[in-house]
Every structure is written in C-alpha cells, then in structure tokens.
Design a protein that fits this description.
- The protein is an alpha+beta fold.
- It folds into three domains: 4-258, glycosyl hydrolase (family 31) (Immunoglobulin-like, Sandwich), CATH 2.60.40; 266-346 and 389-422 and 430-584, Glycosidases (TIM Barrel, Alpha-Beta Barrel), CATH 3.20.20; 614-680, Golgi alpha-mannosidase II (Immunoglobulin-like, Sandwich).
- Helix content is 23%, strand content 26%.
- The strands form nine sheets. Strands 4-5-6-7-21-18-17-15 form an eight-stranded antiparallel sheet.
- Helix 5 runs parallel beside helix 6 (434-457), helix 8 runs parallel beside helix 9 (554-584) and helix 9 runs antiparallel to helix 11 (669-675).
- The longest helix is centred in the last third of the chain and has 31 residues, at 554-584.
- The relative contact order is 0.10.
- Belongs to the glycosyl hydrolase 31 family.
C-alpha cells in the first residue's frame, strides 16, 4: 500500500506520524523496549498531546530478532497467528560506553538502536550492516475511511535483490513490485496468487517475515526505491529478521521457526495421471488410461480422480457418483492391483444439495454470518457453505467424513481451493479476525487433512496436492501451481511461481503438465513433459481435455516414456535431496540464486533452476528448440547426450523434443545414476 505522493508529500486523505527520536528505553527480561515520540522532546510540555511509538526487540530463536512496533497497546490481539516455534536462546542487551546506542543481540545477529539523534536501527550480522530502519522508515498512518496502518521500511543496498513473498507469477526478482499478501483464485496470468507468504529473502543474506496472518502490503523498492516497505492495518506491526549467511542458511533458520517440509513417500515422486476436470469419465475410461500407459511402457505412480467423481451440485459430499462409479471400492482395488496409489479431489465447500449441508448447519459446523445465519454463496457450487475449521468439532466432523474414503482405498487428497474466504459480515467460531482468517484458513484446511493421512497412513506416507497456502504451509505438501493456460508463456509463468514459492520456505512444487486451460499444441505438450518430469512432483492434468500422450501424437508417447524413465533413474538422488529439505528446509527445487548466491550472473535468472544441488534444468520455451542458459563455474555434463561444458558462461543450444538443457555437475551422484560410473567420475 502506498501512503506517499512522491518522496516528500502524503497522498490525499493520509496523515502520518513517525518516531522522531528515542526518548527512553526499558530493559525487561530478555527484551529491549524503546519509546519514540513523534516529535523531539525539548521541554516537559513537549510530552503532552502527542503519540509515542514503542518498539520492542526479542529473540525467538538464535540468529533471529523479532520486532514489535506498537501505538495503542490496549487494542485486542488479532487472531489467528502463525504457528512459530521458539528455540533456546539467551539474548545479550548492552549499551555503548558513550551511551549513544543500545544493542540487542541474538546469536550473530544484532539490532543496534541509536539513542541520540533521529530514529535509526541497524541490523548487523557479525558486525556488518545487512539492512536498516531509518528516520522515515516507521510510520503510523491514518487513512481516511479506512483507519490506522503501521508500516516499516528496511533499506535496500546497491545491487540488492529481493525474492519470495510466496508464489508469484511475475518477475522472479521482486524489486520494483507492489505485492499484496491476499490469497485469491486468480490463475497464473495476474498479480494475484494462491499462495501468499509474508516472507522475503534478500540476496544480501537475510530474511524478513511479517508476523501477521492478514493482508500485508509490500512495496519492494517501489514507493521508496531504496527500501522494502511493509504495512498492516491496525495499531501494531510485528516482523522478524532472520540472520545472515547464504540464502539456504537463512531458509534453514526460517523453516526452523515456521516449520520444515516433511519427508514424502517414494511413490509420490512418480508420474500422477488425472481424469482432468470437466471431461467425461467412468470406470472404463479410467482403466483404459491406466492400461494404455502400461501398454506403452510409461511408468505411472498415482491416479487422480478430479471433481466429478462426485455428483454435480453436491460438492463436497464425499459420495461417489453411483451412475459413473457404481463400485468404487472395486475400482480402487483394481488400481491398487496395478501398483498405483489413488488420489481424489476435495475442497472445504459444502453445497446446499450436499447431504452434509443440513447436518453441518444444525451442528454449527458451517461459517455463520453476524446474525447467526449460515453464510452461503452461489459462486462455485449452488448455495454452498464453508466448513468452520476454527471449531475443533467441525474439523473432526469434516475429517471424519474422509475416513470412509480412506476405507475405500484412497491414499491421498487433492485439497483444492481455500482462497475464496469471505471477510464481510461473518463470525468465526473462535472469534478470529475475518481479515486474518482469510489467508490463514487454508492452513487449517490443509493441516486437518494432512494430519488425518498421517494418523491413518503413517508418518512419511501423508501427501496432499494443495493449491492454496500461506506462511508455514510447507508443513503440508505437495503444492501445485494452479490454473495456467496451455502455452509457453504460461509454462514460464508457472516456473516463476514455483521459484518464488520455494524461496519462501516451501520444499516441493508441481504444476499441470501441458497446462490446465485449453489443449496444448503437441509441441508445447512435449516441451512441458520434460519440464514437468524434472520438477519435484509431476502430474498430468487439464480442464476440459485429457492429458494422456497418445491423444496428442505418437512422439508424445515416446517423450513421456523417456522422461519418466529419466526421473526414475534420478529418484535416489531426489530422495537424498529430500532429506536435506526435511533436515534444513532447503527446497528440493530451487532458483539459481539460492544455489549460487555469490555468482552475480545467477541473481536474476528465472527461466532455469536447480533440481537438488547438482542438476541444472533449462526448459525449452519455443518451438524452435532454442534455449539460452547459464552454467556456473565448474564442469557440467549433459544428462542425456553427455556433452561436457566448462561453466562460468552463458550457453546457447537447440534441442529436439527429446531433450532440453539438463546438466549435472561432473562427479555428482546424479550423473552416475543416469550415465553410469564412468561418466560420473
């Protein structure tokens, strides 16, 4: 949100108050609090009739500093809050000998507060300044017709790049962008996103989480081109600074606090095949697809039933459509006999015609309006309501309905939607602030289903295919990129979204091979197959057309077979990388900037990526097969044709549909697995 008109003036309807100086400080138990009036205090009379902003510094974990900026402390704390795990740490609070500064230190990270002169705080890592809050950084704004906001601006250095903020489909480097943290069902071609995370990662080796589940607004080098600004509505703002080092070290600290991605079952890395969305399908169709893949020697791991496994107008009632699937247990048994796992589509919306609607309404398990009525809409399913997951009994009721599907033989759930959560005129069971619950709702939904699978299938066997998320959502994988078109442009959009998401603490990511909307040209489909099977998780899915390869052309069958086999050979390498994801929060699929932060050529690359630490992937985004990519220093070997290239330079190549830019470091395990010990040596 922008408050200013240029650098000097405020926008119409905005008043702004900023801390002028530190008037005094308190050292409480493990906490430093400074009090800053909005004008300088020269006489006793200056203490009257003016606001004071209080800024506190605490240490939730080693190398992490939490900051709270507060105006009126008596305002009720808004719920929900992110689930953040504290760690053992004893901060050090000191004052300089000349009394000019106070320092709050957590591990190797220090907040140094100026006690004289204008407002100024430096955040230092091993004594080196990472970023600063300066005289115009903190603001308490009153916006006409909207109420108060609190904002902070942290300085950007020359050449500093900002990444993350969840899944974003625009430019990978966020500098110059305005980003609103607000989950929305906007596809992959807009500034909206399904997965909004108020955490950003700096190329200077630090991270910042705004600890607010609600609508955080970021101006990344936009309103003030020399700072990253973030603002929230209300009387207080909390944020956390994560100490320096490499970006992967910062993500290690951040995911230790917000949650690590868990280990996933080996079968989840194989190829998933879907019925697609609005296509016609029944048991015969499903088995023909599965058997067709086997007949063509294309390894398949999971079969997914999308929405219409249930009857239209009844979503979600978790009842198989008897006209289409009269014997669901028998069908699932046949799929299991073919060596497949089964996934079914669900969402948290209860249609008025669902058998669950009356039951949920009578028991108080559905979201209510302020007058006590069930909140309803016709957007998506006629008269649908929303499960109130702030009510533990409603959560148990909902997951209890899924138990029957697990008894049928379902192994995983696609937890779709979770973004269209109302904020006006509603009342949550636990009193949560509707603004904060809008983004946070998806965490409750995905957590409920994921934990059910852990209880029933065992730890390490739980898998979702989730669309929406916010901070901490990496604890409930997998997430896919949402509704993209079937074009090269959308393919690149999807990749940027995935790289932004995995820069925000998420370890795994997938997308719809071939795109969702429309039917891809056969060449686009083949290029997307290579990209999809060199992502952490791989799914064939579309909207109104099937995605089995023989419906495109016979060459698509060959390409599908080749790349599923390639991923099979890479599986031990991927499982090794997944252990690091669980242990340290290092994403299995990551940007070049994450893996090679010291190489300036990597900092803005968003059309290539690393799959684990040793495999570089540069998808092809045009029919000609031409692709340009950057190989960092060292020797790299093409996984398919064996070409050896010295890195530290950009390379241009042209590949047919059976290949792409995919190189492994010489001597790496990935290379040995694919090309044998001699090539890997």
């Amino acid at each position: 949100m922008k408050f200013t008109n240029g650098y000097w003036l405020l926008r119409d309807g905005v008043t702004m108050q900023r801390p002028a100086e530190v008037h005094d400080l308190e050292i409480r138990e493990d906490e430093l609090v400074v009090h800053a009036p909005v004008t300088r205090i020269l006489t006793r009379g200056d203490t009257l009739n003016k606001p004071v902003l209080s800024v506190s510094f605490t240490a939730p974990r080693e190398d992490v500093i939490a900051v709270r900026i507060e105006h009126f402390a008596g305002h009720r704390e808004s719920l929900p809050r992110f689930a953040l795990t504290p760690g053992p740490v004893t901060p050090e609070i000191t004052r300089s000998e000349d009394g000019a500064t106070a320092a709050f230190t957590s591990g190797r990270l220090t907040a140094r507060v100026a006690l004289r002169g204008p407002w100024h705080v430096d955040y230092l890592w091993d004594g080196e300044v990472l970023t600063s809050s300066t005289a115009r950084s903190i603001g308490y704004a009153q916006v006409e017709g909207e109420g108060p906001y609190v904002h902070e601006q942290l300085s950007l250095s020359v050449g500093e790049h900002v990444y993350g903020l969840g899944e974003r489909f625009g430019a990978f480097v966020k500098n110059g962008q305005s980003v609103d943290i607000w989950n929305a069902d906007g596809g992959t071609s807009s500034e909206q996103a399904y997965k909004n995370v108020p955490f950003y990662l700096s190329s200077r080796g630090y991270g910042v989480l705004v600890d607010d589940a609600g609508p955080v607004s970021f101006e990344v080098g936009s309103e003030n081109v020399s700072a990253t600004q973030f603002s929230v509505p209300g009387e207080r703002l909390r944020y956390e600074v994560y100490g320096g080092g490499t970006p992967l070290e910062v993500l290690d600290r951040y995911t230790a606090r917000s949650g690590r991605p868990p280990q996933l079952p080996e079968w989840s890395y194989g190829l998933w095949l879907s019925t697609s969305f609005t296509t016609d399908y029944d048991e015969e169709t499903v088995l023909s697809f599965v058997d067709g893949m086997a007949e063509r020697d294309i390894p398949l791991s999971v079969f997914h039933f999308d929405c219409f496994w249930m009857r239209g107008f009844h979503w979600s009632d978790f009842t198989w459509d008897p006209a289409t699937f009269p014997d669901p247990r028998g069908l699932l048994r046949k799929l299991h006999e073919r060596g497949l796992k089964v996934c079914v589509w669900i969402n948290p919306y209860i249609a008025q015609r669902s058998a669950l609607f009356a039951e949920g309404a009578q028991k108080g398990y559905l979201l209510r309006t302020e007058d006590g009525s069930v909140w309803q809409t016709d957007l998506w399913q006629a008269g649908m309501a929303l499960v109130d997951f702030t009510n533990p009994e409603a959560t148990a009721w909902y997951t209890g309905k899924l138990e029957a599907l697990l008894e049928d033989g379902v192994d995983a759930f696609k937890t779709d939607f979770g973004e269209r959560i109302p904020v006006e005129g509603i009342r949550w069971h636990d009193g949560s602030d509707p603004l904060r619950e809008h983004n946070h709702y998806t965490s409750r939904f995905n957590q409920a289903v994921f934990e059910l699978l852990e209880r029933r299938r065992g730890e390490g066997e739980a898998v979702l295919f989730a669309r929406s998320a916010t901070a901490g959502g990496q604890r409930f994988p997998i997430h896919w990129g949402g509704d993209c078109e079937s074009t090269y442009v959308a393919m690149a959009q999807s990749l940027r979204g995935g790289l932004s998401l995995t820069s925000s603490g998420f370890g795994y990511w997938s997308h719809d091979i071939g795109g969702f909307e429309g039917t891809p040209d056969p060449t686009v489909f083949k290029r997307w197959i290579a990209f999809g099977l060199l992502s952490t998780h791989s799914r064939l899915h579309g909207s109104h057309s099937y995605r089995v390869p023989w419906l495109f052309d016979e060459e698509s069958v060959v390409v599908m077979r080749e790349f599923t086999r390639l991923k099979e050979r890479l599986l031990p390498y991927l499982l090794d990388g997944a252990e690091e994801t669980t242990r340290r929060g290092a994403p299995l699929m990551r940007s070049m900037a994450l893996q090679f932060p010291a190489d300036p050529a990597c900092r803005g690359l968003d059309t290539q990526y690393m799959l684990g630490p040793d495999v570089l992937v540069a998808p092809v985004f045009q029919d000609s097969g031409a692709v340009e990519f950057y190989l960092p220093e060292g020797e790299w070997v093409h996984l398919i044709d064996g070409e050896r290239v010295r890195g530290g330079r950009f390379v241009a190549r042209t590949y047919d549909v059976h290949s792409l830019g995919v190189f492994a470091r010489a001597g790496s395990r990935a290379l040995q697995l694919v090309r044998g010990d001699e090539e890997g040596a």
